[in-house]
Amino acid sequence: MSVRLDQIDRKILSELQEDASQSLDEIARKVGSSKTPVWNRIRKLKEAGVIGAQTAVLDPEALGFEACFFVLIRTSAHEKEWQEAFLNAVKSRPEVQEAHRLAGDIDYILKVRVQNARAYDAFYQALISEVRVHNVTALLSMEQIKSTTALPL
Q1: Distances in Å between the alpha carbon of 61 and those of 56, 66, 98, 121, 130?
Q2: In a domain, 117, yes or no
């Protein structure tokens, strides 16, 4: 379901994507409005589900999470019970930053952030002990070239 946004809404969202810690005064000044209307628009955008959780973006390497793996998973099991077990296993692991069900030859892709290869192996061993998979391929990211959560408004 899409929400109708005018130009001011888009400017507000762009500012929040850039830096959600800005004050209402700063955002209002940048979008050419005043504080109260900006606050009302933000409140309505939150109520409509356009704006979700506001969080801090942490530097994984500064915190010791130096390895990022993209894990490609193929399964021969597609029953509801297997899917539920797999989703529970993935959702319960904090190392998994993203998980996607795919169309094509690969069934799932996970973005897994860990300290090192040994930590990835521990993650892998725990995952395959909980759910059976047909094939797992882990790809180590050598360099992050771009990372953003910003949408092209």
Answers
A1: 15, 5, 17, 19, 29
A2: yes
